[in-house]
Amino acid sequence: MQTSKRRFVAAILMAFVGASAHAADATESKLQPYEAVYTAYKWGDDVGEARIKLEALSNTQYSLTYSSKVSKFFLSDKRYEHSIFKVEDSSVLPIEYHYTRTGTGPDKKLTVNFNTDNGGKIAIENGDEFVWNGQFDNQIYRVDLANQLASGETNLTYDFVNYRGELRTYGVEVVGNENLSLPYGDFDTVKVKLIRDSKTRETFAWFAPSLNYTLVRLQQFKDGEEQGDIKLKSYTSE
């Protein structure tokens, strides 16, 4: 079975989910804990869900978890990400990142540790090391995005370590505003496009200003064909 078929809708669930971690503004360093749940669709069918949870561990340290479980016919995919990070002077700094994947095809896991001191290193569990130069992990670069959108930014660039332990750069470009009807309700949204090297894949995401720029929908295409679509079905915050 080809890898692209094994991934089906699960591959898109990691592209932007978790982006609305209620990033701190210039005068406030605390983040607002929340939980968001999304329904995943493939070819119009409900194939599973994704869940994001942000928790405060202390006044400056946080836990961000992502989980998804999807299945279609004889294919299945379960993923879990866990980030521990801190916020200092409104800057988001990674500490640890953990990733696991099970289901159809090979199981995978990864641990990344960050030393964000001056001259610090990024240590990948396979032995690779990189000089830390402000990179985020695969999730927490998105923590900044909600605040940047709220501030009116329309073009952003993020450097990060992905769930394969590779250094990557993504761009985010605002493409317009749109009203959406979702399982959780109707929302006016800001629509953005993920900019990356791939010429065959397109990823779009919608964020709701009325929910502190929470991600409410994510859709991905490959060679013009929809790979998957997720939509917000519940949201709670403290």
Automatic annotation (TrEMBL):
Pfam families: DUF3108. This is DUF3108 domain-containing protein. It comes from Alteromonas stellipolaris. Residues 1-23 form the signal peptide. It comes from the Bacteria. Keywords: Signal.
